[in-house]
Amino acid sequence: MMFAEPSAASPRELTWLLVILVGMPATAARAQVAADLGPRDDLARVKMTDDRPLAIRSVRLGRNATPTFETVELIADVAATYANPFDPEQVAVDAEVEAPDGSKLVVPGFFFAPMRSETRADRERIVPDGTPGFRVRYAATMPGSHRIVLVARDRSGAARSLPLNLRAERGSSHGFIRVAKRNPHYFAFDDGTPYLAVGENVCWSWGRSPLATYAAWLKGLGGAGGNWARLWLSNNEKGLEWLPAPTPKAGSGSYAGLGRYELGNAWRLDEVARLARENGVRLMFCLGIYGEFRDGGYFNEGMWVSNPYNAKNGGPCARPEDFWTNPEAKRLYKRKLRYLIARWAAETTLFAWEFWNEIRETPEEVAWTAEMAAYLKANDPYRHLVSNTYGTSPTWELDDVDFTMTHMYGKAGDIADFTRMIERDTRAHLRFNKPYILAEFGIDWQTDDGKWDRPRSGLNMHNGAWAAVMGGGAGTSMLWYWDGYVHPANLYRVLTPVRKFVDTVNWPAANFRPIDGIRTEYTRVPPQRHEDLTIPATVEWGGASSDVYTVLRDGSVRGEPVAMTIGNPSRGNRDELPTKLTWHLDMPEPGKVLARLGDVCTKARLRVTLDGELVLDRTLQAGPEGKGPWKKSRFDGRWNIWVSDYAEDLAIDVPAGRHELTFANVEGDWLQIRSLTLPRYRTIQSPPLHALGLASDSQLLLWLHNTASTWRAEHDGKPIEPAENLRVTVPAPDGTWQLEWWDTFRGEVTRRETVRAAGGSLAIDLPRLDKDVAVKASR
């Protein structure tokens, strides 16, 4: 989920998983999880030590012949002396492979315990089902004979097996997913087949039957054409490493502490990967979350108290920030990466490794990311894609970070239409010359999108998906609320027409680039009218690219995105937040401008000026709920401060004409101005059309969106007025173009026509546009 990065204190943007559980209070939800999926005595009985002399007693291939890119297991009976089978300094089992072309690689092995799933008392239980031992998973990437030697090591030395021969024949798999060679803004499989990610998050499945739940989710997603999903591997039902219970923030499973991995959860992740493979879905493994390195938080999501890296729990780190630089912490983390590589890297289902969800970027964290990404590239035999969130230039410019990502949410329904934000953010990230994915997306970080989508139309999901793809992203926008919204409402159907469309385009080969200079106009101009314009502040924390904004009569804002939080210049880090926001307005008539006052931290003093004259000077306090004019409050124990939400409209009389309006904070900590509403400001003479698209030398892709078609209009019961008598003019080479008009809700071509471009422009007259349409033009 989206999270606004803090300094001494800041807003927390996270819908925490325990709150999502059937509306259950967090304490009750955690207790339920502990009862359903907590420590299990049967897993504790799995033998994980050995004191025998080193020997490879037997080794065999799961099969002697295989199609390329399909996983084959080497099953080994290895005797050795070790107290921890996950510590490669005590025992390491690897396969040395010589491929048919003479190239050589080392494939790490891993400790494995056979498991099965049982249903007991109406809940899933993972129980041992055989003798534990060591295995190697290997995927042959080329046809021919692969010579494999197993090597086992302990502190006494090394043992080698006789060679095994695996015969590979070319199979139907396209291989692993890479950054496309022909266009680094997109992905492609090993064989060059394009891959554009269409999907959603399915991060956890807390509850009584995780595997059955994942089976339903992945079947629904894959059946609708989805091909991408994101998993969290933190301390949930798929986690490997956490502090054993009892502990204040217990995880799901029989955890054994730092450097020892939960084999039942690992087996469950094997099964989730199998389910994804069967349904054609690729998985991004997000290995950890920011809450592991803090306590408290808006939803009490902090878990440092139970983090096994915490020195109070016997770990190497006295403080959370020590994790990034402590040599022992890095050594132990690389050990976990080795296990992850050994067990899952041979899966073509694995799309990418993502180190963290929404970790705060610091110089130390960037250096850590560079080191760990390099470790993955050096030790993952298949060199899977690597990324992280959050990131800015220092992260995205790392050689071993393959693609960029962001997360995007509104707050309390403040953003009616995300499409321009998606287009802007996509373009901003394409400058790194890497693929970009909007990896989390939703109307409101505070609550399920279902609150805002009563008819369950999925219109925001629809608009976000098309805007992301046609804005130049390497995938759709990945909706967050999968369990309480997408699945119950069967909104997988939103993805089907997108998948149908993207499958008709060779994304890497076409060398697409975002189109600049698209013009929209009326073919028959309607009477001029005006409507109120609300401009949301979308940068909740930190400095935006500008703190000066000019609002044009068509409703666009120069200088956006707009900063929300205004700091006092005397704060400890004065460069962290803007201290004044300046607005240039051109009022068509006199009226009251409404500034929406949001959170206040501890204390602030708001000064508002109009053309240099003071019009408002107000001291704002924060405190317990019910003890002041604020609507609600929260106490942040980490910083020992109150943050109070005023949720109040401040009215400022502004005459007609051009004016400068400023908002400054001159005392205390910080305050928020969440939005600005300008009365009857937007001139409805410019077409209600957002046109965006991509161009190559021989193809144009356009998404034409009626700007009245938003989730907010549906929520408010406001009829979506059709857009009529419209024309778009697109820069294009002269000549004849063949147009396909795509119904974006059915994924079908509704008509074809031939048009000519002249003078470097292609003019296209639109049919009546109820919501949106896609156009594919070829020459």
From TrEMBL:
<dbReference type="InterPro" id="IPR017853">
    <property type="entry name" value="GH"/>
</dbReference>
<dbReference type="InterPro" id="IPR045053">
    <property type="entry name" value="MAN-like"/>
</dbReference>
<protein>
    <submittedName>
        <fullName>Uncharacterized protein</fullName>
    </submittedName>
</protein>
<dbReference type="GO" id="GO:0004553">
    <property type="term" value="F:hydrolase activity, hydrolyzing O-glycosyl compounds"/>
</dbReference>
<dbReference type="InterPro" id="IPR013783">
    <property type="entry name" value="Ig-like_fold"/>
</dbReference>
